[in-house]
Amino acid sequence: MKTHEMDLCSGSLWKKILIYSVPLMFSNVLQVLFNMSDIAVVGKFAGPIALGAVGSTSILITLFTGMLIGLASGVNALTALHIGSKDEKGLEETVHTAALLCLAGGLILMILGMVFSRPILTAMHTKDELLEDALLYLRLYLFGMPALGLYNFGSAVLSAAGDTKRPLYYLLMSGVLNVLLNLFFVIVCRWDAAGVAAASVISQYLSAVLILAVLLRSKENFALRPRNLKIQPEKLKRILKIGIPAAFQNGLFAVANLFVQTGVNSFDHVLVEGNSAAANADPLVYDMMAAFYTACSSFIAQNFGARKKERILKSFIICLTYSFVTGMLLGVGIYVFRVPFLALFTNDDAVAEAGMLRLSVMALSYSVSAFMDCSIAASRGLGKSVLPTVIVIMGSCVFRIIWIYTIFAYYKTIESLYLLYVFSWSVTAAFEIAYFIAAYRKTCQADAAFPA
Q1: What is the pLDDT of residues 129-181, one digit of tens each?
Q2: In contact, 231 and 175? CB cutoff 8 Å
Q3: Terminus-to-terminus CA distance in the chain, angstroms?
Q4: Backbone angles phi, psi at 178, to 5 degrees
Q5: I need a labelling partner for 147 at 20 to 30 A (CA). Which of 314, 376, 414, 443 fits?
């Protein structure tokens, strides 16, 4: 019988990590395209005001989706551990606890986002001419949070089992629907920002339904059975032990970037719109690199559960190599093709010129983030999440805020603002790598099970 799962505990790591990660890379890119297609359609067919409105919400959308993705990382690590250790009861309890947890997370974020969206957008100094459209887009988009929570739950479970292809297929279907609905709602219905938000929400629910259908029909031990849906306190604690710090980290990155957006908003609207257009490269690059971080966590967790500790360090080194090379190739490639890339999002030459300033700084910066993020993912694969989160808060979040109020405040140039990324990644990476090496050595000296 054909199986979609992959054994992560045997065979060539170079080959299996690549096979595992490539579908995940495209899955991540398709999620990015939900928001990117929104910006492209409004930029082309609704004008610069709608473009600026949708673009100004990108950091907030990253905040909410990043928290759900972080929560799902706890699901992924614990599911992979139980698969590797062949603990069927623990696997069943983890899956059903995680389903309820991720749904609840999506609902909570939707409600909180609805309540606080206006104060946050105002605090970000969103331009008056952009505020109402940005608020409408954001509030409509938030209706998709429960679906996004469930999709990320399903994707985390399947990827922990080595199946990264089916999530790709479902996102491809929903992504195509998203683009078609974008064009219909904006061009035909003239809904502008509201139209692209509605298209994204509908597409997110489609992807959630498709991936839940797989888990409901599955005959594997990680199948979803409605009668078994129940919160198991011990499993909830272990998922949250990894997922909450990861979600908190993703949330704090977005909060730190709110300060960056506030700095961008201190310039004129042309530079704000140019930044919005060029910033579409960020999630494209980050999320393709992130496929290897998910691989790193899954491979390490499964091999930790199977007590094959000699494969742990190898998995880390291989995933780090792949992610670094991916970041370098994508960053340089986007810069080389910066003119057609920016043309996807704006017809205004001045806006495109402003966007090139960001791309010129970020092109060689993206790859540096691999050293930080891959080390964090490796530590989570070992069940270590709290201290890596503290490190990243200090090294990337706090460091960025300090940079804005010192370096950027002194030079007051957009280039000095963009340079904070590569410097914060470098500082954080040094400490994250040191922590993972220490955790790895301690793990190899003990024969203990995955930390409770």
Answers
A1: 888 888 999 999 999 999 999 999 999 999 888 888 898 889 889 888 988 99
A2: no
A3: 35
A4: -60, -45
A5: 376
Residue type at 57 in one-letter notation: T
> Which residue, 328, 338, 355, 342, is CA-closest to 422?
328
Residue type, 8: L
364 is written with which tokens?
A: 């060689």
Report yes or no: 144 and 204 within 8 Å, Cβ to Cβ. Answer: yes
* Local structure of 277: helix, strand or coil: helix
How far apart CA 56 and CA 35 sit, in angstroms, is: 12
Q: What is the pLDDT of residues 311-333, one digit of tens each?
A: 999 999 999 999 999 999 999 99
Contacts of 85 (CB under 8 A, 6+ apart): 305, 306, 449, 450
What does the CA dihedral 98, 137, 197, 45 come to, rounded to 10 degrees?
Answer: -150
CA pair distance 380, 387, nearest whole angstrom: 10
Assess whether pLDDT exceeds 50 at residue 43: yes
In 3-state terms, what secondary structure has residue 221? coil
